[in-house]
Request: fold
Amino acid sequence: MRIVCLNCLAEFKFDSTRRSWIWVLRQPNGGFATRVGDYSRRLDRRCPNGCEIDEEILDYPTTVIGFVGESASSKTHLIVSMIYSVMNDPVLAREWSIVPSRRSTKLLAALENTLMNRQAIGYTQKRGYVGAQMQRQENGIGPLGTPQPPRPPQPPMAQPQTQTHAWSGWQVRTPILIKFTSLATRRTVNLAFVDVAGEDVADAEIAAKVSPHLAIADFIWFVVPSTLNKQYLAMMREHAGPANEDSLSNPVEHSQTVGRTKMMIDQIAKLWRTANSYPLDLPIEPPRLHASTIIAKSDLLSLINLPEVGIVAPPADWADSPYSLNGAGNLYQPGQIDYRSDATRSLVRKLFPAVDSTLSIHFPHNRYFPVSAVGCGKRADNTYPVFKPFAAVDPVIHMLNLIDHRRAER
Ligand SMILES: Nc1nc2c(ncn2[C@@H]2O[C@H](COP(=O)(O)OP(=O)(O)OP(=O)(O)O)[C@@H](O)[C@H]2O)c(=O)[nH]1
Ligand SMILES: [Mg+2]
Ligand SMILES: [Zn+2]
Reply:
């Protein structure tokens, strides 16, 4: 099984008969060499470059999922809400055991608690440069913008670590890793949720550094907020009720634009093609990469009067009605998920058609998933009236189905 360190992208295998690492070193001419490391590294839970890794990635295949979107588009809320929703979903529980990795448990619990206490999660910090010596300390700003306590000093490495890598000197951003075990087959797959801060994509220097990470992604989710069309945003403001008045008048939250979103999609496609030596004029297709789009903050769509809204978005009284009566808006069945995807595409073609055409140029298999991570907008005091996600499980069902197909093909 090929293992990739999600921090430095070192590729390695673990040879249990020889009790050693086999470290694959890619060379610029397309060839590769290998280097054998010793077994103690496994006990360290470190990659050959010395980064701390989740021990689960040594044991099970890992699917890497990148979330890309402009700042304040809801990426971080989505990741936390999706994970929370799948771990508590009664239908998924019949088929899967879903457990966070040991290293992700604490961070995930803190983020979930924030939402369950109806508090907003802060914006994710742009990745900072911390200098060559500090790169492995991992303290300061943690993943997803959460402050992390400083870690105690680490024991010295067995060998001097002189290797530089894609992220040398940059803050480490740890993905959230969730282990999915099928109750029917007992097979396990890890899903690694990687949050790419909006500013990381906007900054050319950092974007170039993000590209090797995008190159190893199995899934990319573009996150596009429902409020992208400012004419419709004005209409939403006109019809807003107490549940979303504050958030709609918040200028930062709806600062995303059609122009920048198109540029971002173009940029990501270009970075991915370059990093994978993929022809510039060919569309990017599965199984190389699964790209889909989440239309985020779908709770706001009920404020506009278009026929697709009834299929796509939660009802206008979603935040006020009791949870148990209407479930969590998931459809579960691939056929129904496709039907909602088509309705969402039709809506997108009315609200921001240029985004759909840019997506379909690069990613002709793109599908749409409308999701409300929270179920409502945040109030001026940074709290939510309720935490009630809508359709946050369906994107994960979609991915699990595709992962299963991929296995069946092998
Ligand atoms: N109405 C509504 N607002 C939401 C929802 N999810 C998030 N928001 C609002 O959108 C804002 C941005 O959400 P984040 O999750 O921080 O966005 P992000 O994409 O991670 O942004 P960066 O970290 O800056 O890249 C938050 O302050 C939320 O209040 C939702 O489901 N509905
Ligand atoms: Mg964020
Ligand atoms: Zn590493």
About this structure: DSSP finds 14 helices and 13 strands in the chain. The chain has a mean pLDDT of 84. The pocket of zinc ion (ligand 3) is lined by residues 5, 7-8, 10, 47, 49, 51 (CB under 6 Å). The chain has two domains: 1-53, 55-147+168-409.
